[in-house]
């Protein structure tokens, strides 16, 4: 009998002022948390395969770079005009470093990089270029496409908005 | 009883605010509406009839100023266009697609001077060509709209380079 009453109270609580304030506070916290700090996102496209699959879901953790800077091999979200559409890419080079692709192999400052996350064959060639100040060089993990069809390059640090939660 | 009155009062205020916003749109809303119309004019459903196509072409012309300037990464695309030229290019482009969708996100609107609106936004163009190939492009744009005869018209657009190869 008591259990029934408790269940009923849980699902159909009385609309007391205290309860309404609690609901408003929870709604406000959820809005702020999921709207500005941990944004739900849906991955569309194949540029980060096989690390992130087309159609999968994740969260964007925006506090990650509050006290630190993006590091090499970090997967980051690069924003366009806002947070509604973003690019998910991997940082391959940092400011002042030189990036180059030779027959699909990535070279940073002339040294070949070990990239275990790249699983598909790649034959890209890109002449060396230096990453400008306050920028990072980002590329997708799926390089099994002509270089012209892959969206990659140097992004300003201001555009790095966070990292996927997993 | 008191709570009931509070809920009714909140609802009444909400409806009042919504009605005021809807009936007396701000300049910002008017600018946003132009983007909504542009999106409608460019987008195409599979099986679109000739009447709808002609109507969209006419509406598209009325959205642009006499001289519209486009600045793009691809040099051949950059230049100055008249509303008729834009409408003809868009019509030609649309004919190559069986389905086309233009969406705008994250519109940041500012009014640097009277009669001038600067808008930063993300534009996404998605489609399927008549040969069955899928197309999906996203770009950041900076647009300038001018208020001419009480209408906000597109006068300048620039494609912002987010990733520099």
Describe this structure in words.
The complex is a heterodimer of chains A (166) and B (165). Chain A has helices at residues 2-11, 17-37, and strands spanning 38-42, 57-61, 75-79, 86-93, 98-102, 105-108, 111-112, 126-130, 135-139, 153-156, 160-164. Chain A is α+β, with helices and mostly antiparallel strands and 166 residues long. A seven-stranded antiparallel beta sheet of chain A has the order 1-2-11-3-4-9-10. Chain A is elongated and about 75 Å long. The mean pLDDT of chain A is 93. Chain B is of the alpha+beta class. A six-stranded mixed beta sheet of chain B has the order 2-1-6-5-4-3, with helices on one face. In chain B, a hairpin with a 2-residue loop joins strand 5 and strand 6 (151-160). Chain B is globular, with a radius of gyration of 19 Å. The model of chain B has no long low-confidence stretch (mean pLDDT 90).
User: What fraction of the residues of chain A are assigned to beta strands by DSSP?
Assistant: 25-35%
- In which order are the strands of the major sheet of chain B placed? 2-1-6-5-4-3
Distance between the termini of chain B: 65 Å
- Total beta strand runs of chain A: 11
- If helices are DSSP runs of H or I spanning 4 or more residues, what is the number of helices of chain B? 4
Total helical segments of chain A: 2
Oligomeric state as shown: heterodimer
| Helix residue percentage of chain A | 10-25%
Which structural traits does this protein have?
heterodimer; A: 166 residues; alpha+beta; seven-stranded antiparallel sheet; 2 helices; 19% helix; elongated; B: 165 residues; six-stranded mixed sheet; 4 helices
Q: Brief description of this entry?
A:
The complex is a heterodimer of chains A (166) and B (165). With 166 residues, chain A is of the alpha+beta class.
Task: Give the helix/strand layout.
The complex is a heterodimer of chains A (166) and B (165).
Chain A: H1 2-11, H2 17-37, E1 38-42, E2 57-61, E3 75-79, E4 86-93, E5 98-102, E6 105-108, E7 111-112, E8 126-130, E9 135-139, E10 153-156, E11 160-164
Antiparallel strand pairs in A: 1-2, 2-11, 3-4, 3-11, 4-9, 5-6, 5-8, 6-7, 9-10
Chain B: H1 2-23, H2 27-42, H3 50-61, E1 64-71, E2 79-81, H4 83-95, E3 97-113, E4 116-129, E5 134-148, E6 151-160
Helix pairs in contact in B: 2-3, 3-4
